[in-house]
Amino acid sequence: MQIFGGRVPLAWRNLVASKTRLARSAGGIGFAVLLMLMQLGFEQGFFDSSLQLIRALDGDIVLQSVRKYQFATRDPFPRGALDAARAVPGVASARPFYADAFDIFWKNPVDGKVFLVRALAFEPDMPVLSFPEINAQAAKLKDPDTVLVDRRARHFLGMDAEAKQSEVNGIPVQIAGSFALGPDFISDGTVVTSERTFAKLLRSPGDTPADIDAGIVKLAPGADLGAVQRALRGALPEDVAVMTKTELIEFERKFQAEVSSAGPIFAIGTLVGFVVGMLISYQITHTDLSDQLPQYATLKAIGYRNGYLLRVVLEQAAFNAFAGWVPAWLLSLVLYWAIGRLALLPLHMSVRLTAVSLGLTLSMCLISAAVAVRRVAAADPAEVF
Fold first, then answer.
1. Contacts from 362-365 at CB under 8 Å and sequence distance 24+?
2. More confident: 106 or 68
3. Overall average pLDDT of the 326-350 stretch
4. Which of 33, 173, 194, 337 has its CA 20 to 30 A from that of 96?
5. CA nearest 142: which of 212, 197, 79, 206?
6. Phi and psi dihedrals of 36, rounded to 5?
7. Burial letters for 54-85: b for 16+ Cβ neighbours within 10 Å, e otherwise?
8. pLDDT grade, residue 4 (50/70/90)?
9. pLDDT over 80 at 242, yes or no
10. Do residues 191 and 201 touch, judged by C-beta distance below 8 A?
11. pLDDT band at 261 (very low <50, low <70, confident <90, very high)
């Protein structure tokens, strides 16, 4: 029998010698792997949903208040900063963007219940998002008290009911159309409107809000991103942060991973799965070594050194890791799809997730085997027989 063009490794023979034991090992390790995959998947889905709006900003540089610690928070700055930004060489446009996820209350047009949602706003003639559906319907937002709704919002909001009228903050609004975005861990749904309607919904004085939540800057063709960024920092007040979109994404990711409670929660969940997997893997390896101790003692008696036996045990642990990881990875694909459909979250398998989960699985099995192999190294053939 050949495997990968050479002789069958002893570790492989040990692994497949008992199909029942192999199934038991794969099931135990696979359970721990699935725990880690679900935690890692939820973490990735959380980050993807929180970064979805930032990635959709149609610009090269984003201006926001230096006091903002998260993009979703409200900390506006004077819109006059956009005039100064437009005068900087290399800037093609600087457009105002408004967002609020804490003061917008949507009335379900079906059952009349009121829920907190997120509102996004911009000048209809100056779109700031790269969503084709929103930009194609932007002209409709020129009509007063008109909104677009997210048809992928959570069902209890009633945004998918194809209603034509509703209320936002107690103000009657016309529903001019819909788009597909989906909820995230902060908001259950989103409405998009013009800056004039946005000001009315928040009872701001004047036809337009005096302050903006972000400025979306696009560079002229051929302009150097770094040079324009430095020029903007010199031209704008110190309380206005100037970040490239890549920097803003990293800023948000760092906040979610290190400052918010979500990052540590998912990290702890993954660690728990890893520790559970180590315990299961250790028990499996210890049991296998106990059953096969006479064979290992025989190998020692005929001259095989501990280094060879250690290699065999580690190889068998690696085979066990793959035997548990493969079915867990396949099952996670199904769970990601099902949970993503039910929770309306962007759960999907990625190359990074595959590599991290495989690395963790191999690590927990190899560490457990390295601890358990001491039993083989200390075995005296004379005592065993």
1. 362/318, 362/321, 363/274, 364/32, 364/274, 364/277, 364/278, 364/281, 364/321, 365/29, 365/277, 365/281, 365/285, 365/317, 365/318, 365/320, 365/321, 365/324
2. 106
3. 91
4. 173
5. 197
6. -65, -40
7. beebbbbbbbbbeebeebbbeebbebebbebb
8. very low
9. yes
10. no
11. confident
Phi, then psi, of 108 in degrees rounded to 5: -60, 120
Residue 5: predicted pLDDT: 46
Ramachandran angles phi, psi of 278, nearest 5°: -60, -45
Angle, helix 19-55 to helix 306-343, in steps of 10 degrees: 50
Q: H/E element holding 193?
A: strand 190-194
Q: Which of 153, 143, 205 is nearest to 176 (CA)?
A: 143
Task: Please count the CA atoms within 13 angstroms of the CA of 108 that sit on its side-chain side.
Answer: 15
C-alpha torsion sign, points 190, 191, 195, 196: negative
Question: Is residue 185 a contact partner of residue 135, using CB atoms and an 8 Å limit?
Answer: no
What are the two backbone dihedrals, phi and then psi, of residue 166, each rounded to the nearest 5 degrees? -165, -165
Whether the CB-CB separation of 178 and 148 falls below 8 Å is answered with: yes
Q: Is the pTM of this model over 0.70?
A: yes
How far apart are alpha carbons 151 and 154 in whole angstroms? 8
Give the model confidence (pLDDT) of 284-329 as tens digits. Answer: 888 877 766 667 666 666 665 666 777 778 888 888 899 899 999 9
**What does DSSP say about strands 240-244 and 61-65: parallel, antiparallel, or unpaired?**
antiparallel
Span of 276-280, 307-311, 321-325, 345-349 with lowest mean pLDDT: 307-311
**Who contacts 240 (Cβ-Cβ below 8 Å, separation ≥6)?**
63, 64, 65, 66, 77, 81
Helix/strand/coil for 356: helix
Specify the residue for token string 């540590």: 264
CA-closest candidate to residue 61, choices 254, 247, 250, 256:
247
Helix (H) or strand (E) holding 121: strand 114-122
- Percentages helix, strand, coil for the chain, rounded to the nearest 5? 55, 20, 25
- Report the DSSP beta bridge partners of residue 240: 65
